[in-house]
């Protein structure tokens, strides 16, 4: 940050420090920084299991799901601006608006700590949108974590979880990423040991050429497709013990209804199997399908086959980010 910007920023923070009254905010927010650019990566996820347990009185559904981050990521660049606005420039014009979760995340952090520093968010999308890969949620979590580190904000774990949960059910998972069992609405996150089966070393992610609304998929799920949390618990137990989960436990409550309602997804699953994928599952509410492989050469062969048929296919792997991937310049 140039010294003039630095001064303006510190003055804003000083005003905030002076105006802090209540006890919750009494810890000093020494958000000092000498840099004005911050990059962060936001990784996608897949759901190894997704058990929908039932509908709740608040309209949400109780879930048990095992999620894993994968190395397909969006890149976010945050730049300090001279005004007090939050602006977004996204490589996908349809996402360049104030409804985008990254904008909401930045507003939330600024409001919570009464910070007026302006920020430009540049969002380079690689993760397909409305795809079941958690891209929007991951972007939001990445912005919270980046601002915390860049502005050196004293946010407790419960502050972070609170903000993440208010942005979306999947956002808390992305505060840590890796491998986790998520329950409740998705916001109760229990980290699992970072074990990943050899037979799943390489992952093909196939995104059929349709977008699916999460809310619509939840709404259209018949109660007969609800399950208990047996699959998610069995998979968590196996992975924690360093064992490969049983194939039948890699269950997604949405798969039957999504394949039935969207023929493009059913066709893509058939084509993946036909091309040699050992098994295929839906990620989240879809439409993305994932297929694990133990050998890179096999994954690549199937990818090339599917790409020649016109499909959008990514070759990926499980990733366990140890530290938040934030770079400050
Ligand atoms: O929490 P999020 O905003 O990502 O959820 C999007 C929509 O998905 C919700 O409005 C709700 O309709 C549905 N949903 C649900 N139960 C969950 C998570 C999401 O019904 N546990």
Question: Overview of this structure, please?
Answer:
- The protein is α+β, with helices and mostly antiparallel strands and 329 residues long.
- The protein is built from ten helices and eleven strands.
- Strands 1, 2, 3, 4, 5, 6 and 11 form a seven-stranded mixed β-sheet that branches. A four-stranded antiparallel β-sheet has the order 8-9-7-10, covered by helices on one side.
- A hairpin with a 3-residue loop joins strand 5 (179-184) and strand 6 (188-191).
- Helix 2 (101-112) packs parallel to helix 3 (135-150).
- The longest helix has 17 residues, at 3-19.
- The protein is globular and about 55 Å long.
- The model is unreliable at 1-31 (pLDDT under 50).
- Cytidine-5'-monophosphate is lined by residues 60-61, 63, 168-170, 185-186, 214-215, 218.
- Cytidine-5'-monophosphate (C5P) binds next to strand 2 and helix 6.
């Amino acid at each position: 940050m140039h010294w003039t910007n630095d001064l303006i920023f510190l003055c804003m923070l000083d005003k905030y420090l002076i105006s802090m009254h209540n006890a919750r905010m009494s810890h000093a927010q020494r958000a000092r920084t000498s840099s004005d650019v911050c990059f962060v990566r936001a990784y996608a996820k897949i759901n190894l299991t997704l058990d929908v347990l039932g509908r709740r009185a608040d309209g949400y559904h109780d879930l048990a799901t095992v999620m894993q981050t994968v190395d397909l990521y969006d890149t976010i660049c945050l730049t300090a601006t001279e005004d007090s606005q939050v602006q977004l420039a996204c490589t996908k014009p349809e996402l360049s608006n104030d409804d985008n979760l990254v904008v909401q995340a930045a507003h939330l952090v600024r409001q919570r700590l009464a910070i007026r520093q302006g920020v430009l968010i540049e969002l380079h999308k690689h993760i397909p949108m409305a795809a079941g890969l958690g891209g929007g949620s991951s972007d939001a979590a990445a912005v919270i974590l980046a601002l915390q580190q860049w502005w050196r904000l004293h946010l407790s774990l419960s502050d972070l979880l609170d903000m993440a949960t208010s942005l979306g059910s999947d956002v808390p998972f992305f505060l840590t990423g890796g491998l986790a069992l998520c329950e409740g609405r998705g916001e109760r996150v229990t980290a699992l040991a970072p074990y990943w089966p050899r037979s799943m070393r390489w992952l093909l992610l196939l995104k059929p050429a349709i977008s699916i609304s999460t809310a619509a998929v939840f709404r259209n799920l018949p109660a007969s497709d609800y399950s208990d949390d047996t699959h998610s618990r069995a998979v968590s137990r196996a992975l924690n013990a360093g064992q490969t989960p049983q194939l039948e436990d890699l269950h997604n409550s949405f798969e039957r209804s999504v394949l039935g309602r969207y023929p493009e997804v059913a066709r893509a699953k058939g084509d993946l199997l036909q091309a040699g994928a050992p098994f295929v599952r839906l990620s989240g509410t879809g439409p993305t399908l994932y297929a694990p492989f133990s050998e890179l050469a096999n994954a690549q062969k199937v990818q090339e086959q599917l790409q020649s048929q016109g499909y959008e296919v990514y070759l990926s792997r499980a990733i366990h980010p140890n530290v938040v991937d934030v770079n400050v310049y």
